[in-house]
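[SOLVED] Predicted holo structure with zinc ion

Edit: marking solved, answer below. Original request kept for reference. I posted the sequence and ligand SMILES and asked for the 3D complex as structure tokens.
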Amino acid sequence: MDRAAARSWISQCGYPGWLALVDEVYDRLPPGLQIRQAYQKWAELRFDVDVDDAAFEAFLVEIADRSATICGVCGGAGRRQTVEGWDETICDPCSARAETRIDGPPDPDEDARRGR
Ligand SMILES: [Zn+2]
């Protein structure tokens, strides 16, 4: 999975607020090592890699820890919250409109349709 695919997938999953972390991971990717998967799990940004590399895996743990403090929607300061039964790292304003974001980022048109 290359950087563009990882960015696109994480956005599609509804976590555009974490794209800066995705970039950081690809910036630090050691030569010869491939990212297999990028995904959200337990409200953290996780990566699977194809080769064991203790130093890089320690860095990925640090990224996961940081993702637990960054709103996956807007990239602001977030915290772990349960949104409709899902663990999410999200800020309060984004959480308030969570029904629009389980399948993706908030869509301004949704608000217009709801008459907000
Ligand atoms: Zn937010």
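OP edit: The chain has a mean pLDDT of 88. Thanks to everyone who chimed in.
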